[in-house]
Amino acid sequence: MKAPNLDLQFHALSDATRRALVERLSHGPTSVTELAEPMAVSLPTVLKHLAILEAGSIVISEKQGRVRTFRVAPNAFADLERWMDERKRMWNRRFDKLEQYLDGESS
Q: Rounded distance, CA 70 to CA 15, Å?
């Protein structure tokens, strides 16, 4: 697993506006204009946020004519899930060992 990609993904998701964009895109592909409509930020700001999400491989875009549409990338969160699952397994093993130790102490 590439750490730089994880860094980009965590960075991309560290901002509430970008998470809101991902949430909106989870309902389906949406044009930049439609994404910017309900936001309390300007269109250029939305574009900057989308560029960060795209750099983190969380969203992908397609341009048809003058309309750019974004959608959540297939397997956008696979690397993050794998990373978190590894941490979860590690901590579960440690807690299991602690539990065994504590059970042995109380006997």
A: 18
